[in-house]
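Let's study today's protein:

:::
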Amino acid sequence: MTRTWRIRTVTDAARARIAVARLAAAHGVPTVERARLAAELSGRLRQCLTKGGVWVLTLDGPGPSAGAGTLHVSVVPAPGAGAAGRAPWTVTVPCPEPGRMSDAGPVPEDPAGLSEALLGADEDTAVVLDKLAEQEELVAFHREELHQTNQGVLALHAELDAAGRAQREAFAAERRAREEAENARRRLTFLADASAVLNASLNHDEIVRRLPELLVPRYADRVDVWLFDQEDDRYRPTSHPRAAVRAARTGRPQYAAGHPGGLPGVDDQPPSALDPDRPLLCVPLLTRRAPLGVLTLSPPGERWDPDDALMLLELARRAATAIDNARRFEHNRDIAETLQRALLTELPATPGLSLAARYLPATHGLNIGGDWYDAFRQRDGGLITVIGDVTGHGLHAAVMMSQLRTALRAYAVDGDSPGRLLTRLHGYLRHLQPDLFATAVIARFHPDGRSLTWAAAGHPPPVLRLPGGKVRVLDAKPGAMLGIPLRQDIADHTERLAPGSTLALYTDGLVERRARGIDPGIERLAATLGSFGSAELDADLEDSADRILHPLLSDSERDDDVCLLLCHLHG
């Protein structure tokens, strides 16, 4: 269906606008769309009236049976009205419901009716304004909700940021704690390992040599050890930094550098004149008895970590203890060795019988002082030879050895046999030192020079080389060790000797090895002694003693004393 209106005046425009609005309502156009259509049409009609001329408004709509469709409104210049060439204006709106053009009703002609119709047309505007107010309220509500949401989001972001910072701080604290724990574990491990290395040696020079090997380059760039050789040496500043001399005098650690060290328990000093560009940590090596020296270190970098410095102070204390123990050990060892050698007998000259003896102190550990030998004449012209070993080591063993040696000589004055002498020594040792034991072999060469009486108490058996080169181990039943808590009578054993015979008395340090026991060593000694000829033994028994020791000790670490006494009957 189509309707048209000719527009010349404002009244024509008002009547056309009213008719279009009513037809749009009849076709079910929504209020907002109607208001928008009326507003756009009013604006277009005002433009047309301003331009002048005659204009034609056309409204095309669906028929009554067409169902839903569209309303098409257009405004064009009237033909022959002098407005040719002007562009038409058109607008289309949907029609949800079918309608008839007659449903809109007539538009009044009189001004009063027209005005009333125009006022009625404002109802759509009122509806639109009401909807607009509702929308504004809804927008305001949503704006408030959005504001609240934004505030919540901002608060949530702040909480998340705070939680993130707290988590990062917790992670950083945990990492620092883990690093500190790892560093503490590393320091304790190093301190334990270094202490084990320092205390493994009883040689103070070796301990001093190992200190730089332990500390450089991890904890120090350079290490110097100043040991006091004499009582007043610590007061001599020659070639030593002033901080080291001060540490020696005060007994307190000193730090010499161009900046304060801030190290716990350490006094700060100006830079050293000997080395002004190098920070120095000077730690006194203190013991309970007296200061031993000063340990001077320079840092691996610009300065030390305070915890590393504390660890170095503790290491210096342990190093001082190790050096002190080593020096005391060396002192006791030297005294024991001196006493041992002073008590070793000068072998007597005997017609027809050559004697050669060797004593070698242990080179490892405090194993000096237990082994001894002796040879002396009795009143009837017989010769007593003895070799023995006191259990224990060091100065105490050397003193006990000297007492046994003196007691044996005193008992031998009475002319007792070797077995009887050992029995009396057994009782003497039980009475004198119940917790100390000894082993010994005594061999008596009779005045006729053709017979030998011997007895053993817990000692390796003598080895006898016969003139033809055959070797016998004199392993007849020996007595038990001297000093054990039981009574015993040690038996004598007698051997006939032919010219050219050689008897070897020795201690277990010559033949015993931890990995193989003592029997293989006795067999090696017998084989070595049997390899000599009688002429060699007659000519130079001293050289023969050295030649016996060399092959037997070439595989030994010498952690025990060694004694050898050779008795050779000339041919």
In short: The chain has a mean pLDDT of 85. Residues 18 and 120 are 9 Å apart (CA to CA). The longest strand covers residues 69-77. The radius of gyration is 62 Å.
